[in-house]
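Action item from last week, closing it out:
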Amino acid sequence: MAFADYLLVAAKTAGFFALSLTVFRLMGKRTLGDLEPLDFVVVLAIAEIVGAPLADPEVPVLPAVVAVLTLASLQIGLAHAVLRSRRAAELLEGKPLPLVEGGRVLRHNLRRAKMTEEELRERLREKGFLDPADVELALLETDGMLSALPRPEVTPVTPRYLGRESSTVVALMGRPVEDGLREAGLSAAELRRRLRCRGVRLRDTEEVLIGPDGRLHLTLAPGSASARRGTRRARGLRSGGRKRRGRR
């Protein structure tokens, strides 16, 4: 193939990329699954392009390579544009579409999303809402997923809602959580010291919380040295109890 032929392959790839992206944007968000329109088109196109030379040995490989590199360049360039410009993001990916506001279904937006009210109710049930009237706001996101927030009167009661303090996470997976330590007024060194007093190393913990009363509550990581020591200690206490009962 001549160089002009490869340029033609790249131009055709870019043209079909633009056409596909436009078509999927017009078809609505419900067709996308979990991907943004830009990523969806690239994944679909690359799968088709790569499949032909793999299945048929007579199909030349180099044009497929040119097409894949063209798609990758377009995707990278447009992704940078989306990051830098809100207008480009709205043009290429769209905006979240409200489907429910204040418990009221927005039927004109349902028509824009190519979705029936029964489909909306089904997707709300998947989120734990039996009735749209219980939803303060439901959005069809740009990747086709539905997000929903409950109305205040059906929101579960939490300690914060009642004006009470709740526990603060100060360590996760054996590592200090800086924001949690700052909120609790505790340093990492003080946390380690308090854990040592209980015979536990920080790296052996899965989660450490500090309650409103200032007490530590922790979960040991499975298989950690501290967890194994606790298991052996528990076994020793049980076996000692059996021996004492046997002597009596």
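Closing note: The longest helix spans residues 3-27.
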